[in-house]
Design a protein that fits this description.
Length: 353
Amino acid sequence: MFDFLRWREVKEHQPQGSLVYAGEERHFEPSLLHCTYDSQGLVETCLEIGGESPAFPADKTHFLMLTGVHDVATVARVGQWFGLHPLLLEDVLNTSQGPRLEWLEDDLFLTLRDVVFDPENIRLTSSQVSLFQSESLVLAFQEDDAPRWEGVLSRLRKGRGRMRSMGAPYLLITLLDALVDRQYAALGGMSAAAEAMEERLDERPTEESLLALYQLKREIIMLRNTVVPTKDILDKLADPAEEGVPPEILPFLNDVRGHAAQVTGAVHALHDILAGMLDLHLSLASMRMNGVMKLLTLIATIFIPLTFLAGIYGMNFDVMPELHWRYGYPLLMLAMAGVAGGMLYYFKRSRWL
């Protein structure tokens, strides 16, 4: 349930700053994509991680994307190129922590969560993304090979608009916007699943439907634990006291903040709706059960006097009134019908039916 507890044993008895991978097992080779660009053009290169540190001219913007942090030597090597502190690299390798932001003088380091929702299995998958931004460089660490940055790379390759001319701060905001868009997609899948479940509320609830509703509510809580800290990080980035974002980039950051706030509000609303649906589901099941018990109780109540009369005239005594009378049996049936009808009339008058 809580990944950071699962991986805590890996970090036990390890000194602070020790580079130990604490995450899920991965079976692909790490790769490092280097995009160097300015308003005039873009150059893409797959870097050899084991070689010497490449040149990063300050007059160009650099986007490096390391895919796969399960190889400690690779992460250490890339961190050495940019002088990243061992504590930051430790955070990169510990892929079970929550979103957070660190100010490093003029640089930024962010740890965020990327989410994907599987509607068939009603499962939210979360993976860690770490971002380091300096004056002319953005370095992205991602633990899996999901194509989360394809939209950003496509815009860089097309070279339209402001993408190539706004520098590293704008690139960072664009990456954050892509993550928020993926939160939108996950929220949309959960909302569609919730609507489908709501349409089936009038049907007789089953164990499977109740379990599916509970699982969806559980996953929306996990999504809430991602989107709320993400919104807080964006708010901290926009704090004028920090001066971490250039004034010309601030409108774009505020736009992303607006999207994040909308997702956060919708997640809270969907959580409340699912909680209400679960309560309604249980209440409807209880009402149906109460209706069945009420009907059975009324039937049993009607048959109590009828059983009494049948028991009286079923006794094996010779001398009994109307025992040998020709009209005794029809009269008894008529009396029993009258008793049952009278009780039904009384129940209806009392609105018990």
